[in-house]
Amino acid sequence: MRTSQYLLSTMKETPADAEVISHKLMLRAGMIRRLASGMYTYLPSGVRVLRKVEQIVREEMNKAGAIEVLMPLVQPAELWQESGRWEKMDAELLRFVDRHQRDFVLGPTHEEVITDLVRREITSYKQLPLNLYQIQTKFRDERRPRFGVMRAREFLMKDAYSFHLSQESLQQTYDAMYSAYCNIFNRLGLDYRPVLADTGAIGGSVSHEFHVLAASGEDAIAFSDTSDYAANIEMAEAKAPAGPRPAPTQQLTQVATPGAKTVAEVAALLQQPASQISKTLIVYAAKASDDAPQTLVALVLRGDHELNEIKAEKLPQVASPLVFASEEEIRAVMGAGPGSLGPVKCPLPLIVDRSAAHLADFSCGANQDGFHLTGVNWDRDVTDYQVADLRNVVEGDASPCGFGKLVIKRGIEVGHIFQLGDKYSQAMKAGVLNEEGKHQIMTMGCYGVGVSRIVAAAIEQNHDERGIIWPDAIAPFQVVLIPMNMHKSVRIAEATELLYQQLTAAGIEVLFDDRKERPGVMFADMELVGIPHHIVIGERNLDNRQVEYKNRRSGATELLAIDEVLAFVNQQLKR
RNA sequence: CGGUGAUUGGCGCAGCUUGGUAGCGCACUUGGUUUGGGUCCAAGGGGUCGCAGGUUCAAAUCCUGCAUCACCGACCA
């Protein structure tokens, strides 16, 4: 490709609304342009990278035995009503009507469509297991699109769905997908980790996320510093502190704490660390039946810990989704407002986090505005309570695997695999005849890769102050030819032309910068775009039949005999 | 969904307080100059000042409403 025939569209300045590095660089390097909030047009360089990622994903899926299909982006509402997600999903599901007043959605994912397809096509156990995938645009009307294509509303995703009659078969495919994903991210050249994950709204049991490690990642991941344990922080179990709880040494005392409401204020007033103070959160209790009156539950945490809403929701006593009680609701039962609450003489059922339950002589609200209690002790001052894991793990906690301590890092979720079970197949009655000739509901797995998000994640991990540094596998071009003053020098033009033809004929993706630009402009543009291998053709070196090679990542340069360029590039690309 | 802020040429911004001929840098076009790291000089083209309404002799500027976009938050006890 010659730049004169290409749409390079690089920019010196960054549009003001770009926040993260990948977003800025994708705009500046001419990969994307914003059309509306969370929706982007891909320019030629962007498409090239996107297609490469897509192709690697496709090859590894095929290798792992999955079969490609393509389903519509627009889906009829009936399927979503059948699965129950029409009511369950909120505004994230974009709905609209066609000219016949029929309801449709823009597919945020394709469980319903694939389950509908499979229940029609698959009738016998002999046809199982089956793993179908597609690479298709999705639309999720995100609450808050941000970071360019990293959290866009419209994005490209590979999604696969597998169908089985037994857990063993599902596990086999799940394992195959796990290793296919490792192959994908290895080939992409990214620093990634598979981590244990919560199954969230999609449902199911076993689940792993694949994260590209980057400081700008939206997710926190907990790693053991000695084993290979890794889990999303939402999922990581907070173990009870080691050893027995210290014995009480202090008397229960009420102290006036006028105006002190937050843990920080109370800690300052009482001259105690936040870890010696408990905080009490009031949330909705789970209802026994739909028409039962709403009751409340009190959750108790150490002052320096955060509630993990996912863990709380999973408790049978707690309403799901989690709802915090309003101040009026709290006052009606507790007789005091938020900021003065505590477990002593608490009229609500108490659920205490493991770490909070390990405290002795701690402080808490007195359930009377403007007062706190000190010297509080479990079992002496509070008798009726239950202990559970309620909090997010923090750096330095004991690892749940039993080995080492936890380290917290940030990651970008680029892949997610689930064992779904029969959630969709049951709701949509997708079954086959088994060996005994009896109807049996299939069990399912689903496996996603965020193709467009990978592009952004790769940049987050591979850039410097001059621009993008593409891994060879996904670079828009592998090699760029940069001639010095080609428009004045026939020798340069001829030598560059020859190299261009040689490399192109060898199947290498070459960009030939034939613009009538000054050298500095070409260098700057090609570094911004991130092409991994640069060949500079200049008069001086040409006298010795040499050209200069420059590696974008290392910055190292060396002189090459002009006849050796092809062999050298092949070796660089490990072909 | 709540809070804050922005909207002036393709991009980045000034002008608005105190109403009176719409400006700067980059980019673009033409000519010259320069040529191994975003040269320099000159001459040009390009703007319904987000939209609608109001105040005024006069509105980018003041007032009202709307739209779009961005950032922050969604632990608060």
TrEMBL record:
Keywords: Aminoacyl-tRNA synthetase, ATP-binding, Cytoplasm, Ligase, Nucleotide-binding, Protein biosynthesis. One of its GO terms (molecular function) is aminoacyl-tRNA deacylase activity. PROSITE patterns: AA_TRNA_LIGASE_II (PS50862). It is found in: Cytoplasm. The keyword Repeat does not apply. GO terms for biological process: prolyl-tRNA aminoacylation. CDD domains: ProRS-INS, ProRS_anticodon_short, ProRS_core_prok. Residues 33-471 form the Aminoacyl-transfer RNA synthetases class-II family profile domain. It catalyses: tRNA(Pro) + L-proline + ATP = L-prolyl-tRNA(Pro) + AMP + diphosphate. Its EC number is 6.1.1.15. It comes from the Bacteria. The keyword Ribosomal protein does not apply. Belongs to the class-II aminoacyl-tRNA synthetase family. ProS type 1 subfamily. Catalyzes the attachment of proline to tRNA(Pro) in a two-step reaction: proline is first activated by ATP to form Pro-AMP and then transferred to the acceptor end of tRNA(Pro). As ProRS can inadvertently accommodate and process non-cognate amino acids such as alanine and cysteine, to avoid such errors it has two additional distinct editing activities against alanine. One activity is designated as 'pretransfer' editing and involves the tRNA(Pro)-independent hydrolysis of activated Ala-AMP. This is Proline--tRNA ligase. The gene is proS.
